[in-house]
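Methods: example folding runs. The two proteins below were folded one after another, and each record is reproduced exactly as written to the output file, sequence line first and structure-token line second.
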Amino acid sequence: MNFLPLVLVTALLHVYIGARLVPGLEAYPMGQWLLMAGLAVSALVMPLGLMAGRVARQPWADVLTWAGLLFMGLFSSMLVLTLARDAALLALWLADAAAPGHLPMAQLRTVSAEAVPLLGGLITLLGFLNARRTAAVVNVDVPIQGLPAALHGFTVAQISDVHVGPTIKQQYLRRIVDKVNALDADVVAITGDLVDGKVSELAAHVAPLADLTSRHGTYFVTGNHEYYSGAHAWIDELRRLGLTVLLNQHVVIRPPAAAGEAGAHLVLAGVTDYSAGHFDPAHRSDPEAALRGAPQEAVRVLLAHQPRSAAAAAKAGFDLQLSGHTHGGQFYPWNLFVRFQQPFTAGLHKLQNLWVYTSRGTGYWGPPKRFGAPSEITFLRLVAG
């Protein structure tokens, strides 16, 4: 990847923030210098953090990545707030031009210039604390029409988008595993984007997944980041840990209470990531293939990393799809833009006869920051609709 354009664009955006804010801090010379120094360090460290694996060895590569991603989170908020400040000042300037002398424009420029770095820092701090805490459990009841009595109350613990990598390691995942195990679910589902890195780098940090417990096992489907990280090697590693990887496949689950009740079983299917065919044609995502050979009279649940698999899942005849990928936008205002790429951002929605639940994710990607889109471990319960 050519990082020169990225470095130039990033530098120009930092210059824009400085040019818009520094003049408004003229009453605070020390504040001006601190802001300029912080922007200069950010413009340098952010690109280096993205190239950490190329320019440094462990553990310094992770340290550099941490620094770059922290500055990236702060820069993102600063940029959005600076743009919002400029839009607000323009509106106030137009109002003042229509009725001159009624607005203290100089004071508004100063106060708003002071507010941007303070708010940016506060949002980044709160976002960091939200990202690094163990995800909360979100309880969701999914009404299934015609649900057999034996499957009423069947539970699925879903985790998604953990992104084990430079800033998420074994201890973080261990806390998630412990919290999932405490739910005593019938099934554990991992809906992709588990890792950001190679098996050789992260195998020890993913090892806690071997300790996941449920009545009917742990099931995994690939996300797009698995294909960036060597999907075939990760599939082998997760199988070694005891997970069932569903590659356009299904399993049939028959709860003990279903004995003698016709159709009282659950088909749990999984498809490869929506974009997997671009990386390996043999992995092209195919919900219909995932159902091939499944019993006709059964509740059908699909694990699919991206919500946009829902159209094909509805056509194939699934009752419920569990997805992730979006992170719920992860932090404001990017959650406003997810809907342009995915049909659902977060939560439970319906497409024709298909329920789609989109997790906000259990970890985070990129900046260790969540603001307005908290992470989650989802505990789904099937109920009669």
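Second run, written to the same file directly after the first:
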Amino acid sequence: MHQPTTSIDAYADAPHLLAEMTWVTDQVATHASGTRLSREFWLRKAALLDRLAIREAEEESIPEAMAEADTLAARAAHRLAQYDRERGGGPFATSNGPIPPDSSLWDPSYRPYVRQEYVAWRRMTAA
């Protein structure tokens, strides 16, 4: 059985937070109204918010800031898992990791799912 990816492993070679923030905001700014945002957008946004929540916790920030960061990261992770669940399995599946988005392993949080998918995406895009 596969084990969930740790945040350290998932984000070891990730771009700097500022670069990811810029990429995510640029996608929204240049997004044509009425069109859907890509899976890459939802994945990178979820990973960015997960990383920011981890950073808040490591810095032992103000409790309200930590709670808000956790909430935002959890919502973004849920959105990515929902995106992948809606596309199902088979040739049109969008998830790339070994554990599918509908696994009970992700209960109560999809944040580890984001980490798994981020690692898979980075491997695919590094080639």
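Comment on the second run: The two ends are 27 Å apart (CA to CA).
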